[in-house]
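Next comes a concrete protein, fold included:
___
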Amino acid sequence: MRCLNLLSLILIAACNNNQHERNILKSDTIKPLAETLQVAKVSKPEASSLNSYSNKRFKDVTVEKISRDSFLIRGKGQIFEANFSWVVEDGHEELKQGFQMTDAGAREWGSFQFAIRIPKKRVNSTLTLILFESSAKDGSRQYELPLILY
């Protein structure tokens, strides 16, 4: 009988303790999640915040996305006869290629600017623009500068 009384007291105490925890959760000391979080404001990047890429033949090269699949490429090149080539590839194949000219030949750093439009063939692919100088001897690519488009 004593054991039964002791067991009853323990159950009553446990129920009262559970009720106390419910009262604590209902109190106004708990703030909604929105009140406790501080959200940082994200601003659009400015044109001056574009990443700039360089190597031995190209410098200050930037890529600016001007529409969904169009890009404006600007920079300077120290290129023999002011002529350089480019290719866009997706990791599997070359999708587009061309050539551009700087406004000055080698020894000088000539400026260039051109736009390309290139849609993706594969949704999950990454398009890379590669600027390069072609070898006068064998036409091979020299001084490649890869730039990720999207």
